[in-house]
Amino acid sequence: METKTLKATLKSGRKMPIVGFGTYQIRGTSLIRDVLDYALGAGYRSIDTAAVYGNETDIGSALKTLLPKYNLKREDIFITTKLSPSDHGEKALDAVKQSLKNLDCGYLDLYLIHWPGQSRLSIHDPSNIAIRAKTWEKLIEAKKQGLVKDIGVSNYTIKHLEELDKSNSEIPAVNQVEWHPFYHQSDLKNYCKQKGILLQAYSSLGGTNNPDLMTNEVVVEIAKNLNKSPSQVLLKWAVQQGVGIIPKARSKSHIEENINLDFEIPEKDLDKLNNIGTMTKFAWDPTDVA
Ligand SMILES: NC(=O)c1ccc[n+]([C@@H]2O[C@H](COP(=O)([O-])OP(=O)(O)OC[C@H]3O[C@@H](n4cnc5c(N)ncnc54)[C@H](OP(=O)(O)O)[C@@H]3O)[C@@H](O)[C@H]2O)c1
Fold this sequence. Notes:
The protein contains 10 helices and 10 strands. It has 290 residues and is of the alpha/beta class. It has one domain (3-274): NADP-dependent oxidoreductase domain (TIM Barrel).
């Protein structure tokens, strides 16, 4: 099956495209309309946003004209958004409603807790534990009310995931985390697999304007041998291991390149990428969030 149409089955039985389109730092009505036009034209059917990205309203209004343009219905696309870390706890249900209003798309496919801590608390404050448990209750309520089809988390470590498991609560459908050859953890991947949680990678290319991964000599050499670009190798590396991806790009050529992943990375090269020997995290680190 083409990577473009490849889907993961979530715990609920609903399907989520393995390749999604990331929108962090892409803002403004016309820019959003242009990138989503390129993305839908290239075959992306999943869009990742967040309350804190400040682009939900523009995404919602762009889809009003772009879905008919590509002869798509609401159910043909998968929309993910995330809770602002300032809206943890009692405010979470209202935050879901606000995101849904902004996106104006009837229902959300997936709603994630963006970060395991409440932004007004120190990451070391143990009150984070009770607050995110309350948030999770509210998201379960949002699901019951039909506002969102699936709920999940982001930047959760095994410790954070285990809390939900121990409290016999609903297990998240997805855990979206930083994941690339410079930063990946096999214990987290194994834990998610065992619990049926889809692991989804962010910053697969190193994040905005960061050439470190795309110029890494192991990545470049493998790309050269396969006649692919370093970005395609970095993305396929995740997909081949059953990890979802949400690359972000503004240019049409990058957007098209990032979903054109119909090639195989040989096992020996996957091993090289898995053992690149660098542990560098580029985005925020949840390890110490209580
Ligand atoms: N849950 C979280 O905490 C979290 C954190 C970070 C990100 N995310 C999500 O994950 C998405 C992706 O992560 P990210 O935004 O950090 O960045 P990323 O996807 O790792 O990289 C984006 C950067 O790579 C460049 N790029 C894209 N395709 C390229 C290509 N084919 N060749 C060369 N350069 C290319 C982009 O440039 P151009 O724009 O110029 O094309 C941009 O500067 C985000 O947009 C967001 O949706 C979630």
